[in-house]
Amino acid sequence: MENETYSRALVTYVDILGFSDLINKSRTDASQVERIAQVLATLKQRSSDWSRIHRALGAEIEKIFSSLDFSDHIVRCTRISEGANVSDLIDSDLFSLVICN
């Protein structure tokens, strides 16, 4: 663990409201299973669509965004590179969350 490094990051946590209701309804309505699969697939796809990269002047391209999903939760992380405009990163992250709605 002595080689661990830390960096600043913008982290967002998304929880699908009403997901447990969908699960409960799926017990008696098989069409809800398809709806659950559709909701999860859409969120996963849209999270990965917004993968961001950063290219410093004269530097290699580096991935600064990652996401992890489990059940009805998504954790998104955008690393804040040195000199990055944090306001732009927040705006971009909020925009990507809004279009998932």
Structure commentary:
The chain has helices at residues 19-26, 31-49, 86-99, and strands at 9-15, 53-55, 61-63, 65-70, 73-79. It is an alpha+beta fold. The protein has one domain (9-99). A three-stranded antiparallel β-sheet has the order 1-5-4, with helices on one face. The protein has a two-stranded antiparallel sheet with strand order 2-3. Helix 1 runs antiparallel to helix 2 (31-49). The longest helix is centred in the middle third of the chain and has 19 residues, at 31-49. The chain is elongated and about 55 Å long. The model has no long low-confidence stretch (mean pLDDT 79).
Helix and strand topology:
Layout: E1 9-15, H1 19-26, H2 31-49, E2 53-55, E3 61-63, E4 65-70, E5 73-79, H3 86-99
Antiparallel strand pairs: 1-5, 2-3, 4-5
Q: Which features would summarize this protein structure in a list?
A:
101 residues; alpha+beta; 5 strands; 41% helix
